[in-house]
Design a protein that fits this description.
Elements lengths: L2 H9 L6 H18 L5 H16 L6 H11 L8 H31 L7 E4 L4 H12 L5 E5 L7 H10 L4 E4 L4 H4 L5 E4 L3 E2 L5 E4 L2 H11 L3 E4 L42 E4 L6 E4 L2 E3 L4 H9 L16
Parallel strand pairs: 1-2, 1-4, 2-3, 4-7, 7-9
Antiparallel strand pairs: 5-6, 6-8, 9-10
């Protein structure tokens, strides 16, 4: 599929979820590289650069997209032929996609150890990593029940309850504003992440920070599930995570309200590290305050900044 069409599918949220967006972007660059039939190295580099910029313009908040794209184009400067560059991009993309899928499975195994039989778990939005934890615990024979938020305005919670129902996991759907009412029944909150900053703050679906605050008040552990490619190396350089705002039409039709009423539609919010019990990654369960060390450790020697402060990516 044409990379512009893929970008539009991501932008319009027909392809959504931080992990799915990342894997789709990696595959798109892989396909773009393979589709090139010429021998002009500079033309090929220009094609990939344009594809990279097109994908990065779609969703500004999710660092998974940024890391995926940079992981795929990593080390291009070390090669001087089209064939070598094609092979590199294919290898990088395949490696990223494989590792990202495996990360979800490992997170499920690690996170399931935090769940006790009989627990009631609250989750928000539609996180594959968080669902992996819940499904793994249930497959181990632990009796669990889940409360899932509707997650307006896109109602990703419906995707969550359908997936849980397919696995015969007892599930209740609630509206977002009912979280404080429901928290008295909850033993553990498990959510995903779109971005983890170097200070341990977690950027996730709007409403996550309110759930964390309610959980803190109720003394309910709040656990985040995040693959390491969702940790943001750019925040080490002092960059703030841009919070995406989408069209007001996703919330309300303009003819339903007076013209002089403003509508705000932020997609994400930031949860401070002090409200987070732990972050489950594919390399283990960590404190949110260990985010800095995780970013540097996982990047290792690949944590090499290009001109303009760009990083080559996590994998």
């Amino acid at each position: 599929m044409d990379i512009e069409k893929i970008a539009e599918l991501i932008r319009s949220m027909k392809i959504r979820g931080a992990g799915e967006i990342a894997r789709t972007a990696a595959q798109a660059l892989r396909d773009l590289a393979i589709s090139y039939n010429g021998n002009d190295v500079e033309q090929f580099r220009s094609l990939i650069q344009k594809g990279k910029e097109t994908l990065l313009s779609t969703r500004p908040t999710a660092v998974s997209l940024w890391n995926a794209v940079h992981a795929v184009v990593k080390n291009m400067k070390n090669f001087d032929s089209v064939d070598e560059l094609k092979s590199l991009i294919v290898k990088n993309a395949d490696n990223f996609i494989t590792k990202s899928k495996e990360a979800v499975r490992i997170i499920g195994e690690i996170g399931a150890r935090r769940i006790n039989s009989g627990d009631c778990i609250l989750t928000h939005c539609n996180s594959k990593a968080a669902l992996s934890v819940i499904k793994t615990a249930y497959a181990q024979g632990k009796k669990v029940e889940v409360i899932a938020t509707e997650s307006r305005p896109w109602r990703q919670g419906l995707l969550t309850v359908r997936e849980l129902a397919e696995h015969q996991i007892p599930t209740t759907l609630i509206i977002d504003s009912a979280v404080r009412w429901a928290m008295k029944k909850v033993d553990l909150v498990i959510v995903g992440a779109d971005t983890v900053a170097s200070n341990g703050a977690v950027i996730n679906k709007i409403g996550t920070s309110q759930i964390a605050l309610i959980a803190e008040e109720a003394r309910v552990p709040f656990v985040v599930c995040a693959e390491t490619y969702k940790f943001s190396p750019r925040t080490l350089l002092g960059e703030l995570v841009e919070i995406e705002e989408r069209d007001a039409g996703e919330i309300v039709n303009r003819d339903e309200i007076p013209e002089n009423v403003k509508v705000l539609n932020p997609v994400f919010d930031a949860t401070p590290p002090e409200y987070i019990d732990s972050i489950v990654t594919e390399i283990g369960l960590i404190s949110p305050y260990a985010a800095y060390e995780i970013i540097v450790r996982e990047l290792g020697e690949e944590f090499m900044f290009e001109k303009g402060g760009e990083c080559n990516g996590i994998f």
